[in-house]
């Protein structure tokens, strides 16, 4: 077989999957035969998780059983709370999440990964974040509420009050749109670990570590910082020009696969606009989008750089009252569904993932 060098694995297909289609040329995203944007408008986190894991949207009866199964798994074991409490308060939330998910790994059969494990871990992700957030700020952690949906319960545990329907729907739309996205870096990391027949906790720990990076999941908080630093519409062009002139990147723009606008950004712009009403921050954000797109076309004419999902994710999360430190962990709450789907997929037709490297060093003298 002829070998080729593919730095960053761009354009390399490493698996077949029926979970999602990411069409970067045309800006399309399909989850198991459904447009992701349509699912975000008319379906909940639980319905779409069911679709990804079981292959079809649930009937009412299936949905009810699935919601109960998830809700029953929300509570954290005592020893995991102790592990979280032992992490110094200056550590970021992704570090806490990575450590807590690792600590969830128990004595049960480690291979193959199961749907039951996927449900149990997905159910606990919001609880880990909310528990830590409460402990860090000196509040009593809220116990999860069975009767609330996944998203409503997450907001409830974070704030101590039941959120409005508008906030739950908006965050639900974000969580649906980011559940799954093909062979992104964190999903690939999870699949690589799974391909060694290691356990699902190790695979998810690797995936969380990959999502933590600013080029993947940590962009939304940097988008907020960028918009805050710009401060007003009249400063946008100068600020962005200075950034691009110095060779730096604009956060929330560009994508490895999408060479047109990210369909998730289009959908989230609508969701964010509904919540924002006359919010000057959102007005500034849409202005920054326009100026950034225009200037990126000027500075990088061949690259087709547009806003990605992170740009408006920041606006939605800000509008529902999440602080910046919670942006990437909230992304992890949704992407756990896709990670688990890929881990199960990998395990079901496993071949160890083992690419090669090209040696550019010296050969021994003799
Ligand atoms: C997402 C991202 C990592 C994809 O990167 P990639 O496919 O590896 O593309 P490259 O890093 O090879 O960049 C290609 C070119 O576009 C430029 N570019 C890409 N994204 C850019 C951005 N956001 N701002 C400025 N320039 C950008 C690069 O500087 C490079 O230019 P060059 O060829 O003149 O050196 C990249 O677009 C990025 O860093 N975006 C900002 C972070 C972000 O929003 N991440 C969330 C992704 S959902």
TrEMBL record:
<keyword id="KW-0808">Transferase</keyword>
<keyword id="KW-0012">Acyltransferase</keyword>
<dbReference type="Pfam" id="PF00285">
    <property type="entry name" value="Citrate_synt"/>
</dbReference>
<dbReference type="InterPro" id="IPR036969">
    <property type="entry name" value="Citrate_synthase_sf"/>
</dbReference>
<dbReference type="GO" id="GO:0005829">
    <property type="term" value="C:cytosol"/>
</dbReference>
<dbReference type="InterPro" id="IPR019810">
    <property type="entry name" value="Citrate_synthase_AS"/>
</dbReference>
<dbReference type="InterPro" id="IPR016142">
    <property type="entry name" value="Citrate_synth-like_lrg_a-sub"/>
</dbReference>
<dbReference type="InterPro" id="IPR016143">
    <property type="entry name" value="Citrate_synth-like_sm_a-sub"/>
</dbReference>
<dbReference type="GO" id="GO:0005975">
    <property type="term" value="P:carbohydrate metabolic process"/>
</dbReference>
<dbReference type="GO" id="GO:0036440">
    <property type="term" value="F:citrate synthase activity"/>
</dbReference>
<feature type="active site">
    <location>
        <position position="310"/>
    </location>
</feature>
<comment type="similarity">
    <text>Belongs to the citrate synthase family.</text>
</comment>
<protein>
    <recommendedName>
        <fullName>Citrate synthase</fullName>
    </recommendedName>
</protein>
<dbReference type="GO" id="GO:0006099">
    <property type="term" value="P:tricarboxylic acid cycle"/>
</dbReference>
<feature type="active site">
    <location>
        <position position="255"/>
    </location>
</feature>
<dbReference type="InterPro" id="IPR024176">
    <property type="entry name" value="Citrate_synthase_bac-typ"/>
</dbReference>
<dbReference type="InterPro" id="IPR002020">
    <property type="entry name" value="Citrate_synthase"/>
</dbReference>
<comment type="pathway">
    <text>Carbohydrate metabolism; tricarboxylic acid cycle.</text>
</comment>
């Amino acid at each position: 077989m002829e070998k080729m060098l593919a730095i960053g694995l761009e354009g390399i297909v490493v698996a077949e999957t029926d979970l999602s289609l990411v069409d970067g040329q045309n800006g399309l995203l399909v989850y198991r035969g459904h447009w992701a944007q349509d699912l975000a408008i008319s379906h909940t986190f639980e319905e779409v998780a069911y679709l990804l894991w079981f292959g079809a949207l649930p009937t009412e009866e299936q949905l009810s059983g699935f919601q109960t199964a998830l809700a029953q798994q929300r509570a954290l074991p005592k020893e995991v709370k102790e592990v979280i409490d032992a992490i110094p308060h200056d550590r970021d939330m992704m570090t806490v999440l990575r450590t807590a998910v690792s600590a969830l790994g128990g004595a049960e059969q480690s291979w193959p990964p199961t749907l039951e494990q996927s449900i149990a871990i997905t159910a606990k992700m919001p609880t880990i974040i909310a528990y830590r957030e409460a402990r860090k700020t000196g509040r009593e952690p809220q116990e999860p509420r069975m009767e609330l949906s996944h998203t409503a319960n997450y907001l409830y545990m974070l704030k101590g009050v039941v959120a409005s329907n508008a906030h739950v729907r908006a965050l639900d739309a974000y969580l649906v749109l980011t559940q799954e996205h093909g062979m992104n870096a964190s999903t690939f990391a999870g699949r690589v670990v799974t391909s060694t027949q290691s356990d699902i906790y190790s695979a998810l720990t690797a995936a969380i570590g990959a999502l933590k990076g600013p080029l993947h999941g940590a962009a939304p908080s940097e988008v907020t910082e960028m918009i805050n630093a710009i401060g007003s519409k009249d400063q946008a062009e100068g600020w962005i020009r200075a950034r691009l002139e110095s060779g730096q990147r604009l956060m929330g723009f560009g994508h490895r696969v999408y060479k047109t606008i990210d369909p998730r950004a289009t959908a989230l712009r609508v969701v964010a606009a509904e919540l924002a009403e006359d919010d000057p921050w959102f007005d500034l954000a849409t202005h920054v989008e326009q100026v950034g797109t225009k200037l990126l076309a000027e500075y990088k004419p061949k690259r087709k750089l547009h806003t990605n999902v992170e740009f408006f994710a920041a606006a939605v999360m800000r509008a529902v009252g999440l602080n910046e430190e919670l942006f990437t962990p909230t992304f992890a709450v949704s992407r756990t569904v896709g990670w688990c789907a890929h881990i199960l997929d990998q395990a079901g037709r496993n071949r160890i993932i083992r690419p090669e490297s090209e040696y550019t060093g010296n050969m021994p003298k003799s």
